[in-house]
């Protein structure tokens, strides 16, 4: 039951980034985004990813690994977009 709750919660948290990504892609503007904040979030999620991998290797925590990996990917995408659109402007 808790694994299902983890999956649902993690998916919701990961999907929460989608509106920001869509806004960046539509406006092509990242002037108001703080890149340092996103790098700190990437660092935190990366550290949690290492923990999630260690849990998954022992046979528990697969839901945590899946949802954490999703979060890692979307935060990385935001960072890439911020860098891309800052270089263009």
Question: Overview of this structure, please?
Answer:
The chain is mainly alpha-helical and 89 residues long. The protein has one domain (1-88): Up-down Bundle (Monooxygenase). Helices cover 83% and strands 0% of the residues. The chain is built from four helices and no strands. The chain has helices at residues 2-15, 18-27, 35-57, 62-88. Helix 1 (2-15) packs parallel to helix 4. It is elongated, with a radius of gyration of 15 Å.
List keywords for this structure.
89 residues; mainly alpha; Monooxygenase
What is the secondary structure topology, with strand pairs?
Blueprint: H1 2-15, H2 18-27, H3 35-57, H4 62-88
Helix pairs in contact: 1-4, 2-4, 3-4
Total helix count? 4
Mean pLDDT: 93
Our Rg estimate from Cα atoms comes to 15 Å
List SSEs in N-to-C order: HHHH
CATH first level: Mainly Alpha
Total domains:
1
Structural class: mainly alpha
Low-confidence stretches: none
Specify the helix fraction band. over 70%
Largest sheet: none
CATH topology: Monooxygenase
Tell how many strands the DSSP assignment holds: 0
Task: Give the termini separation.
Answer: 48 Å
Question: How would you sum up the global shape?
Answer: elongated
Strand content: under 5%
Give the gist of this structure:
The chain is mostly helical.
């Amino acid at each position: 039951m808790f694994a299902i709750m983890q999956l649902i919660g993690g998916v919701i948290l990961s999907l929460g980034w989608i509106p920001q990504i869509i806004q960046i892609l539509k406006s092509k503007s990242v002037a108001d985004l703080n890149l340092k904040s996103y790098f700190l979030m990437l660092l935190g999620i990366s550290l949690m990813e290492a923990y999630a991998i260690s849990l998954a290797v022992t046979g528990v925590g697969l839901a945590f690994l899946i949802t954490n990996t999703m979060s890692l990917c979307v935060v990385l995408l935001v960072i890439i977009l911020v860098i891309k659109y800052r270089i263009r402007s």
